[in-house]
Amino acid sequence: MNALTVRELTKTYPSFTLDRVSFTLERGRIMGFIGKNGAGKTTTLKSILHLITPDSGKIEVLGLSMPEQELACKQRLGVVLGGIDFYRDKKLTAITEVTRRFYKNWDESACRRYLEEFDIDPTKRVRELSAGMRVKYLIALALSHHAELFLFDEPTSGLDPVSRDELLTLFRALTADGTRSILYSTHITSDLEKCADDITYIKDGKILASAEKAAFLSSFQHLRTPEDAAPLTLEEIMVRTERRAFHV
Question: CB–CB of 30/171 below 8 Å?
Answer without folding.
Answer: yes
